[in-house]
């Protein structure tokens, strides 16, 4: 299942007055993962990197990412893996890739979730991105919108 990130959507049953999900659930995280990766695939910078890495394995990757975000956001413990090691194996990653990834994540979380839930998901993603960025470049990034830019906001 692949979703068009710009397609109109019906508000979920637990929508707040912004039309976004009020609480994360497997359903909402599935929608997020699919819409986020549709945006990634359409992006001129990120799309080729992900296509090269995943090729014909998109469906298993999407299922794994739903498991990952369910583990992170819901405590489901459905994901097991080495996120850091998998990403460190990718070649040609630049700071610009991280900036686009964070921007697209922010756009999709803002579109799909109530503001406080979107913010929490953004802070978590920024923490993950910061750790990966540090692994690649030996320094911490500043992503620009403040959500999780400071280690104290992400539990570090």
TrEMBL record:
<protein>
    <submittedName>
        <fullName>Hemoglobin</fullName>
    </submittedName>
</protein>
<dbReference type="GO" id="GO:0020037">
    <property type="term" value="F:heme binding"/>
</dbReference>
<feature type="region of interest" description="Disordered">
    <location>
        <begin position="1"/>
        <end position="22"/>
    </location>
</feature>
<dbReference type="GO" id="GO:0019825">
    <property type="term" value="F:oxygen binding"/>
</dbReference>
<dbReference type="InterPro" id="IPR012292">
    <property type="entry name" value="Globin/Proto"/>
</dbReference>
<dbReference type="InterPro" id="IPR009050">
    <property type="entry name" value="Globin-like_sf"/>
</dbReference>
């Amino acid at each position: 299942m692949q979703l068009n990130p710009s397609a109109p959507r019906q508000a979920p049953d637990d929508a707040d007055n912004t039309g976004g999900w009020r609480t994360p659930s497997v359903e909402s995280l599935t929608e997020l993962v699919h819409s986020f990766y549709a945006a990634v695939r359409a992006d001129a910078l990120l799309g080729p990197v992900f296509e090269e890495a995943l090729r014909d394995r998109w469906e298993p990757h999407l299922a794994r990412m739903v498991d990952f975000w369910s583990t992170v956001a819901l405590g489901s413990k459905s994901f097991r893996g080495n996120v850091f090691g998998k990403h460190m194996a990718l070649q040609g990653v630049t700071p610009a890739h991280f900036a686009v990834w964070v921007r697209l994540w922010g756009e999709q979380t803002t579109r799909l979730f109530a503001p406080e839930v979107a913010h929490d998901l953004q802070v978590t993603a920024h923490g993950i991105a910061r750790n990966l960025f540090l692994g690649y470049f030996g320094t911490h990034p500043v992503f620009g919108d403040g959500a999780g830019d400071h280690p104290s906001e992400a539990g570090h």
